[in-house]
Write a structure and sequence with these properties.
Blueprint lengths: L12 H23 L23 H15 L3 E6 L2 H9 L5 E7 L11 E3 L17 E6 L6 H14 E10 L3 H8 L2 E2 L14 E5 L7
Parallel strand pairs: 1-2, 1-4, 2-3, 4-5
Antiparallel strand pairs: 5-7, 6-7
Length: 213
């Protein structure tokens, strides 16, 4: 009688070894980053996790959006980054006293950023720490992880809770009507790019006079 386990594909010992080596290297890389005065704020210092629908902006786009956020927030302004870690990283790279910034993010790897990291799940849009006061941010920049009205609608609740008024939203061009409906934002001329090309056309939307037009 044949063994029942025979039809379950087994990874060869070679593949397993290669896989273990890969994970080990990844761990070492992560470890090195923290120990060697590595610039922990550079884009890509935390790698994309496609299962979380993560796609980092190109360096140029992240810089442009960070610059816009600083301008919009004004001196001493507070900026909230909702699911836009690459813009948060760019803002931190500036190491400026002129503004403060928080990152609301589902991916707990970003907790390396300490107190500025706030765990955020768009399915519970108002499940936020008590010290995040309503309407306490000069601008909220957000990039909902999924191109669905449900995701936008829930993220919109968070954005409206946090912002004093200004909103900078990055999402697919297909979401234009929903973005207007839920957040009163209009599409800008500026076209954000990702470090890997996405199939969906991506756009920025604002509800104030921005430099992105």
């Amino acid at each position: 009688k044949m063994d029942d386990d025979d039809d379950i594909p087994q990874l060869s010992s070679h593949t397993l070894a290669a896989l273990q080596e890969f994970y080990l290297e990844q761990q070492q890389r992560e470890g090195m980053k923290t120990s060697q005065g590595f610039n922990q704020y550079s884009i890509g210092s935390i790698e994309e996790d496609w299962q979380l629908s993560q796609f980092w902006y190109s360096d140029e786009t992240a810089s442009c959006l960070a610059k816009e956020a600083v301008l919009a927030a004004g001196k001493g302004g507070r900026i909230a980054c909702v699911s836009v870690p690459s813009v948060y990283q760019k803002l931190k790279e500036q190491d400026s006293e002129d503004f403060s910034v928080c990152i609301l993010e589902y991916d707990r790897r970003f907790s390396v950023y300490g107190e500025e990291f706030i765990f955020y799940d768009y399915n519970h849009p108002l499940d936020l720490p008590e010290n995040l006061l309503p309407h306490s941010f000069d601008i909220v920049i957000a990039d909902p992880p999924y191109l669905s009205e449900e995701c936008l609608q829930k993220t919109a609740e968070t954005i409206k809770y946090l912002t004093k008024g200004k909103i900078l939203l990055c999402t697919g061009a297909v979401m234009e009507e929903e973005a207007a409906k839920h957040l009163g934002v209009k599409m800008c001329k500026f076209i954000p790019k990702h470090s890997r090309n996405l199939a969906n056309e991506f756009r920025c939307y604002v509800n104030y006079a921005s430099e992105l037009d």
